[in-house]
Design goal:
It is a single chain. With about 220 residues, the chain is α/β, with parallel strands linked by helices. The chain has helices spanning about 20-30, 40, 50-60, 65-85, 95-105, 120-125, 150-160, 170-180; strands at about 5-10, 110-115, 135, 165-170, 185-190, 200. Strands 3-2-1-4-5-6 form a six-stranded parallel beta sheet. Helix 1 crosses helix 4 (about 65-85). The longest helix is centred in the middle third of the chain and has 19 residues, at about 65-85. The protein is globular, with a radius of gyration of 17 Å. It binds 6-O-phosphono-beta-D-glucopyranose (BG6) and magnesium ion (MG). Magnesium ion (MG) binds near residues 12, 13, 45 and 170.
Length: about 220
């Protein structure tokens, strides 16, 4: 099957915002006296803001009202946006920009499939928005990864079938979403965590046009 599109997760694939998400969640967890490590953070990658908060609160032993939880999620996002305020093109992960250029030259469609409600803001800061033929973010979906909705919606907007598209993901939940949706999933990161992917690359440095001939 000829690959017609590449669909990218944002946080941890295009830019290393995963570290800022972690810093902000860690700050909240510390305030609440809930133990939270980088290892725990793996479960938060790719999932929505509200689900992330639920996962953290489950590690503590207190019950909070919906109003308290909303305030916590808002506070985390305010911190996250402060950490992201200085992001610019220099923080695009290695290999991504040349790959996007090569996709454009070869008329391969480019999509975004991100759980983040801040995706547009981050893409703008990176000066990458104009590369994307379809952008599906956390504001456009009702079901979060590992549900495939975000990628299926991107494929529909790009007018391609899932089997004609590659999904690039750094999160376990994201890889699962891509596989469930019928896409060719390329994991970026630790093969032990992303083992369900069709292929795992250690870093975005290894991404190149040859990947389009693999499936
Ligand atoms: C995902 C991140 O891309 O977006 C998660 O991997 C994050 O860590 C989620 O929680 C939601 O992001 P935001 O920006 O809407 O809080
Ligand atoms: Mg990610």
């Amino acid at each position: 099957m000829k690959i017609k599109a590449c669909i990218f997760d944002l946080d941890g694939v295009i830019v290393d915002t995963a570290k800022y998400h972690f810093m902000a969640w860690k700050r909240l967890a510390d305030e609440l006296n809930i133990p939270f490590t980088e290892n725990d953070n793996e479960q938060l990658k790719g999932v929505s803001r509200t689900t992330s908060l639920e996962i953290i609160l489950r590690k503590g032993n207190k019950v909070y009202s919906d109003t308290e939880k909303q305030a916590m999620a808002m506070k985390k996002n305010e911190w996250y946006l402060v950490y992201c305020s200085t992001i610019n093109e220099t923080e695009i992960l290695p290999g991504i920009k040349p790959f996007l250029d090569a996709l454009k030259v070869n008329h391969i469609l480019i999509g975004l499939g991100s759980a983040s409600k801040n995706a547009l803001l981050i893409l703008d800061k990176l000066n990458l928005t104009s590369y994307f033929d379809a952008i599906v973010d956390g504001n456009k979906i009702t079901e979060a990864k590992p549900n495939p909705m975000v990628f299926l919606k991107a494929a529909t907007e790009l007018n391609v079938e899932p089997m004609e598209a590659i999904v690039f993901e750094d999160a376990e939940a994201g890889v699962e979403a891509a596989i469930r949706g019928g896409f060719y999933a390329i994991g970026i990161g630790d093969p032990e965590i992303l083992g369900k992917a069709n292929l795992v690359l250690r870093s975005t440095n290894e991404i190149g046009m040859e990947l389009l001939n693999l499936n």
